[in-house]
Amino acid sequence: MHLTRLIYASVALQDMPYHQVMSILQRAQVANEQRGITGLLCFGGGRFLQALEGDRNVVNRLYTRIVQDTRHDFCTILQYEPIATRRFADWSMKLIGLDDQPTAHRRALVLRHCGQAEFSPLEMNGEEASALLVALADEFRASP
Ligand code: FAD
Q1: For residue 107, is pLDDT > 70?
Q2: Model's pTM, two decimal places?
């Protein structure tokens, strides 16, 4: 197995309601579990930032399907690399909604890791995107 992590950003269809994001998540969790995929999906301000970890071929096939999904657009790979260990091993897919978090806290987190005032994942480089996802995962583990 070639363990791989892919991080991409995308833009949700306009005014995507939160229940639609939840519906994507619930189906993804079941399918990912079956395929040995783990990861984190971050949603805020109509933007997605997602990490997918698993076997290289499985990750590639999944990303190809995700890119074709009409519920979002402008899919952009920010990072793609072989990994020795998973960073999001606890979750077949975890959703973290940034819109739920207090504005000041969200701004501070995004500013610290990405140098941005607002969550704008398409503007991030791979290191920034990865650092933000890891920080969000650590925060969630500390106080779920
Ligand atoms: P089908 O279920 O046959 O769907 C084909 C197309 O129909 C989809 O691409 C989409 O354009 C449309 N569609 C399907 N369901 C709906 C719906 N309820 N409402 C509107 N349009 C719909 N899948 C995973 O397995 N794992 C993931 O981690 C994952 N992450 C995702 C992250 C994001 C941001 C998005 C938008 C989607 C994600 N998906 C994920 C879903 C993925 O894009 C595919 O829909 C899923 O893998 C099923 O693939 P399929 O070829 O069987 O598509």
Answers
A1: yes
A2: 0.95
